Amino acid sequence: MTLKTILLGACSALALAGMASAETLTIATVNNGDMIRMQGLTSEFTAANPDIQVEWVTLEENVLRERVTTDIATKGGQYDVMTIGTYEVPIWAKQNWLLPLDNLGADYDAADIIPAISGGLTVDGKLYAAPFYGESSFIMYRKDLMEKAGLTMPDAPTWDFVADAARKMTDRATGVNGICLRGKAGWGENMAFLTAMSNSFGARWFDENWKPQFDQPEWKNTLDFYVNLMKDAGPVGASSNGFNENLALFQQGKCGMWIDATVAASFVSNPKDSTVADKVSYALAPDTGLGKRGNWLWAWSLAVPAGTQKAEAAQKFVSWATSKAYLELVASKEGWANVPPGTRSSLYANPEYQKAAPFAKMTLDSINAADPTKPTVKPVPYVGVQFVAIPEFQGLGTTVGQLFSAALAGQMSVDDALKQAQDASTATMTEGGYIK
Amino acid sequence: MATRQTQTLARLMMAPSVVLLFIWMIVPLIVTLWFSFQQYNPLNPMRDGFVGFANYALFYSNPAFLSSIINTLLIVGSVLLITVIGGILLSLLLDQPIFGQGIVRILVISPFFVMPPVAALVWKNMIMHPSYGVFADIARFLGVQPVDWFAQYPLFSVIIIVAWQWLPFATLILLTALQSLDREQMEAAEMDGANFLARFWHLTLPHMSRAITVVILIQTIFLLAVYAEILVTTNGGPGYASTNLPFLVYQKASLEFKIGQASAGGIIAVILANIVAFFAMRAVGKNLDR
């Protein structure tokens, strides 16, 4: 055995010993582009924290939700960091399932987080999840088609203007639909859009005593308006279109307007993926003059489950991934247009970002126009703009989503859909002990 | 002839696997049964405990329940009808001495090797999609409005996809049966003046009856549990138009986290499967005794 091999052996033995003392964090996340990018940058984190190893579990949204919910509710302890949304945070924090993030480091600028976003992640004054990216919704539209229809899109249009423009832009012969909206059933699909839309029509899920409100005229107005608009100006098969389907339609030039998540802006304006990249412009989600716009608020956030043995390391990771320095890291590697949007005020004050992302101002205005604590015109007992932050909502939202999807497909009348939605909500709320 | 000793020995040697299989089946069944009497929603652990038959009552009173039972039976019935009749016709065709027989047979059988979610994705996005699908292209070529299959005929679309996947299985089994048919008997019947239809009715079909029974029994088991095709294409909708029992159970368990109700649904599905199996065995299983 030569000296060289002995030295090599000794080195590897030391390295192994070092590995053994390192903590391994298991992080569950969703397979969205921004998270995949974060995974690719893991080595930057481990280089700065050699005593921490990172293992990724990357899943599609529904599967992720199923896994992390099961894990946290059964105290499985599989994950040390979880990616969850603004829906879960208030519910889980109340159950004491999450650790408050009070150890994010001295240079973590928590005050820089956009207030609307941190409001949705704070319970009793404590931050329970750090936002990785945030979004609202707004109108993406084709300037050329708008011009052809002889109209000018205002920055803050009304629903009547949008409907009128959609009908004028529609040209079925050339495959252009005036407007593409979500129709696929699901609490996070069509109900995210329809709940946000209903807010601007003055509707609400429940009154202050948790009594379901689908028998009220505001919901009837919302659903009638939506179904008629989609019948006249929407794409065929709208009842099975969710975010991804509409994104593809818009990118291929088949939609005049699309009201959806602000994160979509970077996809529709990217010439690599979008055939209409140079023709897109943006406007705030529509209103009806009642003081609320039809836009939502969401943030994919990182949280630390209460059951983890590695709370300190987990908070270190959360702090790294949601810090200002992370945004700069992504910008230095991939350009400013690709940094995770919607979480920090400083990003929107950054002239370089404003230059790289023409949709920046409209995104920030949309986020600021949503208030999860006062989502609708009338008072409500719940938190959440496009959802109701109670455990029963996942099930109820999906059931109601099925009914509204059937109304859109013409399998059911609007009145029947609303009546069944009222019955289903009343049953759920009675079962859950909210109403007697 | 087995002696009493060898019979006892055989039973002893088989015992471990029988016990293992029993545990394999009985443990999950008992756990499901236990959960079906509990109120358990992991998102809301404050409300739990024994609730008697409340989960069954809730599952039963769910507006989707009745349509899910009807849809389950419609899927089983229609797919069996399509695959058995289609399988007989295809196997008769494939039994003919034609040019390129081997390649044709492989092509006919190939859908069976495609994973159900993949098959459903292909049908959804490339064939039946109202904007990009082949059917829509054909409709536009003919100058008519493309059909929005999954919104207008959701259950029919699911049935078509599932039948497409199971047709090769039926064809394969029936073709094997057909090939074991005695040629001399056929020739004798032909010389006696029996025409094609008479030969088919009195010789071919009775000869295939056992194979048809096998196809019906095996397919029934799998068709009662169709799920991936629905998840990928229609998500059970619009409304409940294409929700079957397994999909409803999935929805309760994984989307709504109502574990108690999902378990009750699972038990109902087991009971339904047994009823269907009982009638299927009574109706066609007798063929197997011969």
TrEMBL record, chain A:
The keyword Signal applies. Keywords: Periplasm, Signal. It is found in: Periplasm. It comes from the Bacteria. Gene3D superfamilies: Periplasmic binding protein-like II. Residues 1-22 form the signal peptide. Its main location: periplasm. CDD domains: PBP2_TMBP_like. GO terms for cellular component: periplasmic space. PANTHER family: ARABINOSE-BINDING PROTEIN-RELATED, DIACETYLCHITOBIOSE BINDING PROTEIN DASA. Belongs to the bacterial solute-binding protein 1 family. This is Sugar ABC transporter substrate-binding protein. The lineage of its organism: Bacteria, Pseudomonadati, Pseudomonadota, Alphaproteobacteria, Hyphomicrobiales.
From TrEMBL, chain B:
It holds the Pfam family BPD_transp_1. It is a multi-pass membrane protein. InterPro entries: MetI-like, MetI-like_sf. The keyword Aminoacyl-tRNA synthetase does not apply. GO terms for cellular component: plasma membrane. Residues 69-280 form the ABC transmembrane type-1 domain. Keywords: Cell membrane, Membrane, Transmembrane, Transmembrane helix, Transport. One of its GO terms (biological process) is transmembrane transport. It is found in: Cell membrane. It comes from the Bacteria. The chain crosses the membrane at residues 12-37, 69-94, 106-123, 155-178, 211-232, 259-281. SUPFAM superfamilies: MetI-like. Belongs to the binding-protein-dependent transport system permease family. This is Sugar ABC transporter permease. It comes from Rhizobium glycinendophyticum.
